[in-house]
Amino acid sequence: MKYIEKLQYITHDHASISHIDQVQWACEAGAKWIQYRCLSKTDEQLLADINAIAEICDDWGTTLIVTNHTHLHGMADIQGFHVENMDADLLSLRLQLGNDVTLGGSANDLAGIIRLTEAGADYVGLGPFDVTTTKPNDYPVLGIEGYQKAMLELKKIDNNIPVLAVGGIKLGNVEDLMQTGIYGIAVSGAIYNADDFIGAYQDFYDAVKR
């Protein structure tokens, strides 16, 4: 089983904080898992970002995952990919990328988690927990109850894939979320919008690891 970190920071196209700065600050705060999520740049611009970010991650011993953009595999020091399209053919992607590459996928319900498990995903981002402006979508908000139900059903069928809550999560939600039995949390806006980025990351880390 591959290493999957319990607190994952997702970068965002922020008007005043570059992806590179977000990664630098997150690593300084102790981040061991970065998901570079940028859907607004050309391949050349993406690779420039990724190469700079990979150096930072290497310095701090941090895993670098790239959202989508699986065609960049082998072109930079990327440990894995997270595929947001819930209808994507992850089984074919697993065959293309090989077993050494970490591969995660997004789901909104139990059926999605099972599908990703069967396709060879290493972890699942289940959400959205709440309304989020970072990644607008039309999927139903799950809330605490949604995670409780999903984790209970996974336990019944002995499915142990790491499930991370994602989407609109605030610090005050973490304790209740972790008590549902989920593996961890993926966070973006609650950290990059905080007055103290590093302090916010560390607060989340403490809450997840508690």
From TrEMBL:
Q: Which GO terms describe its biological process?
A: thiamine biosynthetic process
Which ranges carry the Thiamine phosphate synthase/TenI domain? 9-191
Does Flavoprotein count among this protein's keywords?
Answer: no
Q: Which Pfam families match?
A: TMP-TENI
Record's superkingdom? Bacteria
**Pathway(s) the chain acts in:** Cofactor biosynthesis; thiamine diphosphate biosynthesis
Please identify the protein, giving its name as recorded. Thiamine-phosphate pyrophosphorylase
Question: Which lineage ranks, top first, belong to the organism behind this chain?
Answer: Bacteria, Pseudomonadati, Bacteroidota, Sphingobacteriia, Sphingobacteriales
